[in-house]
Specification:
The structure is a single chain. This protein is mainly α. The chain contains 18 helices and no strands.
Amino acid sequence: MAGITRTELTNQAMDKAKNKLVPFILVMYIFAFLDRANIGFAKQAFQLDTGVSDAAFALGAGIFFIGYAVFEVPSNIIMHHVGARAWLARIMVTWGLVSAGFAWVSTENQFLGLRVLLGIAEAGFMPAIVYYFTTWFTERRRSSVMGLFWLGPPLAFIFGSPLSGILLDMNGVLGFKGWQWMFLVEGVLAAAMGVWAYWYLVDKPQDAKWLSDDEKKALLTELEEENAAKPQVKVGPLKVLGNPKVLFLAAICFMIQVSNYGLNFYLPTHVAGLLGKKVGLEVGLISAIPWICALAATVLLPRYSDKTGSRGVLAAIIIGAAGAGFIVSATGSPLLGILSLCVVACGNLACQPIFWTLPSRFLSGVAAASGIAFINSVGNLGGFLAPNLRVWAEQAFHNPYAGLYAIAVSGFIGAILLLISVPLGIGQNIKEISKSANS
């Protein structure tokens, strides 16, 4: 096209991809996160009706991530070969059906078994999306696009909190308990979204009918040049798992997820404790406030990261603020408690789209699919540790706030590791990478 530069064509292609793909993938992630974390809303009524103990509930909340971690890398390798469209559809349908199955749980063993199956069903979803975006967006746009994707968790709680509260309040309708309605309705919605995903998504830019030939060529050329200009880890999908940079990023991701799930699993009950009320519609509405704040932070901070090129240092500041928020939330003041939880939610969510720009700086192809999945699988083991750590700390120190303090430490450790990543050449600014590549 005469008069239009390659950069302009690339930007046009990425704008179209953002408008076409990201909103749909965002809705997918909303369902993923809601089906993963909705047991936090059902906790009180679910335990009362089924007799599941606090220890078993904490184990079940975290055991999800065991199956998730084991099957994460194989799942992403399969996705690399069969394509995102078919594999993401498979993931959504299976996890939706398993999630709906919680409506018929009546024993601790059934609860634990389904939590493991849910992790296996969902394994590979988030790293598949991270890898998928590397095939559509360049480094300079990736943080802001990932920020849009990471709107999923706050939106899941903003809309999912009241929805879960309404469904919980349907206790007795058609002979079902409220928590049964919650699992059934939200699970079926996820499965239906999976069927739609198969017909909607596009695997690669060259397959997109809504891109012109010039736009496809410009985008693919820039992506190829970007990959060629950066130091690459060119090893097999399993050998990459021993790469020191991959292991370091996995450790950072682990700490971030301990902080993340230390909030996600317990936010409704934390808010209920601050307000002195049981979990229901009112608590669901109040629980949405921190996620509304996180919504704004997850849009603005990744955009700021792309604008300034700041990666590791900015992410460190953000997750460190979450750690501080946990400590302040150990208060008897409802207002101060809610405000501090807003800081925690903003910190936990907004640091993640910035963090997930780092692996693709040195990983590509099947090594990227495998490495990103490994980082996420190790990181999500933090989701196993978080609820159990809280219970252990509270029991060991006989202090109801000890669990919050323990989770706060993970945020501080994550911040320190992110700061260390800068001199190690992992978390440096984009401009510093460009200077290094040109020297």
